[in-house]
Amino acid sequence: MDNLKKALLIFLTVNLCLYLFMWQFHWLVPFNQNLYINSSHHYLTDERILSGNYNFLRALGQYDAQWYLKIADNGYPPNPQTVEMENKTVMDGLTYAFFPLYPLLISILNMGINNVELAAFILGQILATAAFCSLYFVVSRIYGEKIAFRTSLLLFLFPFSIFFRSYYTESLFLMILVWYGYFLVKKQWWGVAVANALMMVTRPTGLFLVPVTTVFLIADCLKNKTKLKEMIIVPLITGLPFISWMIFNFKSTGDPFYWKNVQSSWYLTSSPLVIIKVNLYLLKNFFALPFHSFHTSRVDILAVMYVGFILIAGFRFLKREWWLMSLMMWLPLLILKDTMSFSRYQSVSFPLFVYLAGNMNNKWFTAVSVILGALLFATSLYFINWHWIG
Prior knowledge:
The chain has one domain. It has 19 helices and no strands. The chain has helices at residues 2-25, 33-38, 56-59, 64-74, 101-110, 116-143, 145-157, 170-186, 189-200, 210-222, 228-253, 258-263, 272-284, 298-313, 320-328, 331-336, 342-346, 350-358, 362-384. Helix 6 (116-143) packs antiparallel against helix 7 (145-157), helix 7 packs across helix 18 and helix 8 runs antiparallel to helix 9 (189-200). The model has no long low-confidence stretch (mean pLDDT 96). It is a multi-pass membrane protein.
């Protein structure tokens, strides 16, 4: 595991340099007052909007991070009355759009710190490091250390990995997803059940992996490799946390699907047919789109196409379990929502990076790593100044 130590040292060095870069050179990109005021709800006010000084920990709390900080500090509001996107000063019913596991962990850590931003920052370092080590370990067991080394660095140099350095669910979800993929390949169904269960209360995309669990569990059963007890208990373990989340929604709001209803507030429509038409329209009119924006973005459309290409090209290279995992984190998003934040959602789809790592020589790996790293540092300055990233 000498390569793991080397990779971890690179990861920690990049993180330290990235944070120092954001701290010292934040002024290179102007603070986006327009998007700050009109495009995001705020739990904690960024002092720069009041002509105050730059606050590093506050600047990391972009967009969705504000919701997680609020939930970690105050929990979910009982009997919410307001579901309003236009009034950015009200954070009431929309809070339920954000799943509970990540803010719960922040809240637990904050009990001993009493500073929710600092607690979120410390938790972020722990989760990102754990996700990095988990990714290296799991990929090395399946594909060998060379591909593990490359995969880990490529994923954490990816420009949208800036969210691993903020107060988002990405690091937590990635860590659990990696172990889910490992247990799935090894057919360790208890581990699969627990991992899938945790992902389902971390972010909605965890629900898309239930069919993956189901398909391979049934296939294993048909081969007489799975006991009847596992066939019964695995679905129960998988569903219990999410059922508890729906019960909580029902008790707090009177609607077990309240979380789903408020999530639709972020999108122009909830009709799958309309969404598919919209996304096809965006693909067709790629060159007319802005470079990067909320609902219309060349960057996100490029991500859609590139992931689709990797899924086709990587069908034989990737483990069937991992290929299907990435498919289910790609296709449902294109049916159930527009391409908003699509690139960020793909940052946790580690099999995509496994494919890249396994299909480039040393020169290409070095060149791509340098380019991704430069883009990550550039992206970080836009991120902390309230420009839309994902």
